C-alpha cells in the first residue's frame, strides 16, 4: 500500500528541469515573498487605521521581534548546529545551538503574542474594527513561516 502512487506520472514534460539545483533559489524567493507579504499587511493596516484608538502603535513590536528572530534563526547554518563546520569561536557548537534556540523562542513568542493581540485586543472586547488584529497575526505568521522556509527549505550541499 505504501507505493500505490508510484505509477502515477505527474508533470511529465519535455522541459527536463532539474529542480534540485534550483532548490535554494526557490526557497529563498518563497521566503522573501512570505516576509514581504507579512510586512505589507501590517503597513496596510497602519496606513488604513492611523489613530491610536483603532490600532495601538505598540502592536508593531511583535513584527519587529519576529524579524529579529528571522535573522537569528538564519544566521547559523545547519552545519554549525551539527558541529560539522564550526568548532572555533567563543562557544562553538553550543553557542550556535543556544543562538538558534533563542531565535526560535523569539519567533514562537511573537507568534503567540500576535494571537493574544488579536483575541485580547480586538475579538474579546468586540471592537467594530478587527482588521488591525488580523493584520498583526498574519504579519507574524508570514514572517514565521518565511523564516522556516528559508532555514529548512535550502540545502547546504550546493555550497561546498
Descriptive labels:
160 residues, mainly alpha, 0% strand, flat, 5 helices, single chain
Question: How would you describe this structure to a colleague?
Answer:
There is one protein chain. The chain is mostly helical and 160 residues long. The chain has 5 helices and no strands. It is flat, with a radius of gyration of 20 Å. The protein starts with 22 loop residues before the first helix and ends in an 8-residue tail after the last helix. The mean pLDDT is 87.
Q: Which residues form runs of ≥5 with pLDDT under 50?
A: none
Query: What letter string, H or E per element, gives the SSE order?
Result: HHHHH
The tally of strands reads: 0
Helix content: 55-70%
Largest sheet features: none
Amino acid at each position: 500500500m505504501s507505493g500505490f502512487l508510484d505509477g502515477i506520472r505527474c508533470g511529465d514534460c519535455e522541459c527536463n528541469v532539474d529542480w534540485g539545483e534550483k532548490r535554494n533559489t526557490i526557497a529563498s524567493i518563497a521566503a522573501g515573498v512570505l516576509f514581504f507579504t507579512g510586512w505589507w499587511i501590517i503597513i496596510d493596516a497602519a496606513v488604513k487605521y492611523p489613530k491610536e484608538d483603532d490600532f495601538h502603535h505598540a502592536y508593531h513590536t511583535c513584527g519587529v521581534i519576529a524579524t529579529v528572530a528571522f535573522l537569528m534563526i538564519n544566521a547559523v547554518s545547519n552545519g554549525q548546529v551539527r558541529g560539522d563546520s564550526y568548532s572555533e569561536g567563543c562557544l562553538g557548537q553550543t553557542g550556535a545551538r543556544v543562538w538558534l534556540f533563542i531565535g526560535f523562542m523569539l519567533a514562537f513568542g511573537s507568534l503567540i503574542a500576535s494571537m493574544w493581540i488579536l483575541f485580547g485586543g480586538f475579538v474579546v472586547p468586540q471592537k467594530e474594527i478587527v482588521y488591525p488584529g488580523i493584520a498583526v497575526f498574519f504579519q507574524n505568521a508570514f514572517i514565521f513561516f518565511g523564516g522556516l522556509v528559508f532555514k529548512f527549505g535550502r540545502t547546504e550541499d550546493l555550497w561546498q
